[in-house]
Amino acid sequence: MVVLLALGWFWLRDSSLVAVDDVTVTGVSGPDAARISGVLEDAARDMTTLHVSKSDLDSAIAAYPQVKGIKVTTHFPHRMDIVVSEHNPVAVIVAGGKHVPVSGDGKLLRSVQPGDIATVQMSAVPGGDRLTDQRAMSAVEMLAAAPSALRARVQNVWTGEHGLSARLTRGPLVYFGTAERLDAKWAAVTRVLEDPEAAGALYLDVRIPERTAAGGLAEPSSAQASSGG
Looking at the DSSP assignment, which residues form a beta bridge with residue 92? Predict the structure, then answer.
């Protein structure tokens, strides 16, 4: 009896009675969105709601590095929902005339079109699928830690005499020093930029976030100084 039940289960799980014929793919974006959805739908329709091969779905999207992972949910008897999570580019590596987007965890997204995001200059585009240069990785980590509204204002990031530094549109240079305590440093940047007294600063030094310095502010005129006592 047990053998018959087992045989019946294996027959049912791969039968057309539970074949996947209704696939919904969400979470994809960008120019490859239709292709990614298509390959996932094709792979899913070779499965049943009782027999899902996650490895086959992963293989179907292996050519798309922007895909971080997928979550699969089945609904008996014929429906499958696939939610795609993507690597979001936070910077563009620039080297030798090439532009390669990179995610916050260092994943190189070669097939993704570079958007209007901050650039990180390198001497050469790295091989492989991950960023390994520590200096460039620190710049990417800094951008990944930024509030989205401020990240959108960063033009480029580099390492100079003040360590890790960034240039903001409609704003000052920002000196971060190291890639440590990035949340506190970005909080200090936000706080100073919201302070009307810091308007017009040429640079912000947040290397020690508790002692943020705003430099390049215009000095009051002698007349203003005397009238103000």
Answer: 101, 119
- Alpha helix stretches (DSSP H) within the chain: 2-13, 33-44, 54-60, 134-145, 148-151, 182-193, 222-227
Residue entry with tokens 């570079």: 114
Where residue 216 falls (left for φ over 0; alpha for ψ -120 to 50; beta otherwise) is: left
Q: How confident is the model at residue 226 (pLDDT cuts 50, 70, 90)?
A: very low
pLDDT tens digits for range 85-129: 999 999 999 999 999 999 999 999 988 887 899 999 999 988 999
Assess whether 14 and 111 both reside in one domain. no
226, part of any domain: no
Residues 101 and 209 in one domain: yes
Residue linked to tokens 């401020």: 150
CATH number of the CATH domain containing 171: 3.40.50.10960
Token pair recorded at residue 144: 């990944």
Place of tokens 């580099």: 158
